[in-house]
Amino acid sequence: MTASAWPPPAVKLPALAAGAALPYSYYHDLAEERLQRYFERGLERASRSPGARLWRLYQSGETVGLALLEPLTWDTQVLSRQAARLGALLAAGDYHAALRRKQQLLDGVLDEARRRGVVHLAARVPAEDLAGLHALESRGFETLDAIVTSGQRVEKGPAGLPEGVRLARPADLAVLRRLAAASFRYDRYHADSTIPAAVADHLHAEWIENSVRGLADAVLVAEAPGEPGTPAGFLTLKVDPEAEILGTSIATIVLVATARECRGQGLGRRLTEAAVVWCRAHAIERVEVGTQLRNIPAGRLYAAAGFGLLAASLSLRWAAGGRCP
Q1: Which of 220, 207, 199 lies closest to 177 in space, CA to CA?
Q2: pTM of the predicted model, to two decimals?
Q3: Mean local confidence (pLDDT), 38-63
Q4: Cα–Cα distance between 310 and 187 in angstroms, integer?
């Protein structure tokens, strides 16, 4: 096993990333060669990012496994500890061969993580990747949550935002930060026993501010009933700039929150419908959202808004020990 920069020689990526391991493979109308090209582009870009390291596992001169370690600068700043993610963990072979190979790759990744002082390492695997899940758990990763991905095609229809919904403005930031800090409980940060709740709350406040300042492609705000101009909920959208490789366009709903005192008044449904309208106005063909499996109210909301189940994944974390300051 060796570690190097891109491109790795003799990599037979189809054998490593066949089927469900390919991003967006749940869109069965997309050509597999386009999915493969998208995957390769993403892996190449990630492996060339500052501080990233790629591992290759060989057999008979061919690559039979890949793993990628990526530093997380923003997480490191907000959590006040060295954070990184496992950007890829792929291996060819049946369950038993893939399990052994992924465990071997993880040994190299974790040795490097310890050498760098990484103490918080995140990973996500498709729910059907049992070899990946079991390899991670065998090396001390803890499962934090399960994500279900739902989506819908954006059909023709009205392109104007619903009444009471508008784009966020910088003047909304103070309210949006308070709302974000109080709204999220099902996410992987709050599920992580090594992260105090106050730190997870602050992380979401920073996240929504960064979204308004350009991280998101759109931040939609639902105004409080009877209080024009006052945000009572928000939704952020991110467009995948690489989806053109697939011959389509895809946007993801990333963050959604409504004020506790305004819940049950249809703000979440209005924001979701507004997200579809925004996508329609910007010629986006598909919109999807990831929801924690235990967040049943959100799952019902998206189902009622016409989103259908597409995929499931599991989020895990390895920690070197201790809690964030």
Answers
A1: 207
A2: 0.91
A3: 89
A4: 19
